[in-house]
Design goal:
about 200 residues; mainly alpha; Tetracycline Repressor, domain 2; 9 helices
């Protein structure tokens, strides 16, 4: 096990705070002063870790992705162990009430949290976002392949449907309307794609 230096621990703490703020409040909602305060540091220490706010956002987006992707995989694996197909497990894990609640808490999928904002960001942020979207599409394509249809175009469409459903559910919140949106989307997606 690698032991992190104090500087590395501090850097990771800053990224944790920034990644949560990013998923919860969007790109414009991440302020340097608030992130540093949330990490228990002064604003003056920021430039010892990052060259710019954009550099912070790039690393925070990468950090958020690295934290949320394994959580989705764990939820899907757990569902597969109870007998769900790979596709059903992925759809149910992504469009779950737990994932919706995680998004509200500043956790969960960065694409579901930030998808509508990603295209308006500077090139370095769009590149990180594009990579996350491509990995999500790849996961969907792999799940489709296991039910006999791994076509890339279908994976693109299914990914878009899943992300859009999560974004709309976030608008309703983790209550009854958000849960109903997710349930209806799960049912419709699985009826169409899992034949």
């Amino acid at each position: 096990m690698t032991v992190l230096s104090k500087r590395e621990q501090t850097h990771a703490r800053i990224l944790d705070v920034a990644a949560r703020a990013l998923r919860r409040d969007g790109f414009d909602g991440v302020g340097v002063a608030d992130v540093m305060k949330g990490a228990g540091l002064t604003h003056g220490g920021f430039y010892a870790h990052f060259d710019s706010r954009e550099a912070l956002l790039v690393e925070a987006l990468e950090h958020a992705d690295a934290a949320s992707s394994p959580n989705l995989e764990r939820r899907a694996t757990s569902l597969r162990e109870t007998g769900a197909s790979p596709l059903a497990a992925l759809v149910r894990a992504y469009l779950s009430d737990e994932h919706l609640a995680a998004c509200e808490a500043g956790l969960g999928c960065v694409v579901g949290s930030l998808g509508s904002e990603m295209g308006r960001q500077a090139a370095p942020l769009r590149e990180v976002a594009r990579g996350r979207i491509e990995r999500l599409v790849g996961s969907v394509q792999a799940a489709l392949a296991e039910v006999g249809d791994g076509a890339h175009d279908r994976a693109l469409a299914l990914t878009g449907a899943m992300v859009g459903a999560l974004q709309i559910a976030r608008t309703f919140g983790p209550g009854e309307q958000g849960a109903a949106m997710l349930a209806a989307s799960r049912q419709a997606i699985l009826a169409q794609y899992e034949r």
